[in-house]
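Lab notebook page, bench 4
Experiment: in silico fold of construct C2
Operator: M.H.
Input chain length: 292 residues
Purpose: comparison with the prior construct
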Amino acid sequence: MSQSRRQLAQIAISRALRVRKAAGYSLRCAISAYDLCERLGVAVWFSDIPSMEGVYIPDAKPRPAILVSSLRPAGRQSVTCGHEMGHHVFEHGEQWDEIVEQRTEARRFDPKEYQADLFSAALHMPKIAVNHALNRRGLDARTCPAESVYALAKYFGVGYGTLVTHMARTLNIIDSDRADELLRHQPKDIRARLLGKTCPDDLIVADVHWTDRAIDVQVGDMIVLPAGTGIEGRCISIIEESSTRSLVKAEMPGIGRAANDSLGWAAYVRVMRKDYVGRAPLRFDEEVDDVE
């Protein structure tokens, strides 16, 4: 007998929490999906696949592999990686996942895809972690501004709409009217409001509560940091300082560090080449042309 959506969801969420624990992550922290997969013996590659979100190859040698499209937005890439990890965990066999917007009606409910989607959501955004992130920042998901929700989405490594939908449909911490209200705000408009001008690349807002993982960005991305924050490393540069923020730009691949001694806060900043193709663990390596 086939399982109901509710049963599939319960199994997916439970398994995702167990996988986080197996990889050594607390249920209260944000994660890097790529780092988690590598910790658990699944190789992750970025590939310039134009028509696919991702691919899971169980028989790859020397170990199972996930391919993630390098041509998709950063939040979508991370969620796709988690989705393909779901196929691995549930032993779904080889999977080629087309771009979500291109799925046919017939595929819109596929138990394997549904379970992998929920697994990825729970892997990135467990209810405990979302509530913890909100509470630490003194936010109420029912009333906080869209800019705060956007910043949380970046913290969890997912898209703005992905977090909003997850809070409404799975976590039930906001209702559908609130979700509709938040979804009326487009990420590009939120970025423009936060930056004070059009932002062609991604924008990350990191505060003193960003303590669980590195700030991962791509070349060209901007990072809003607490005022008075200094940086280390050639891969990032400060382009604006004010009484309210330090604005940093990702300049080249590499690993740097942001630190604010007065606030007792620091975080690593890892910069990946835009549209990077190659093994995930090597994505922050400086290239020869960058160091000459």
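Observations: The two ends are 62 Å apart (CA to CA). The chain is about 35% helix and 20% strand.
Next step: discuss at group meeting.
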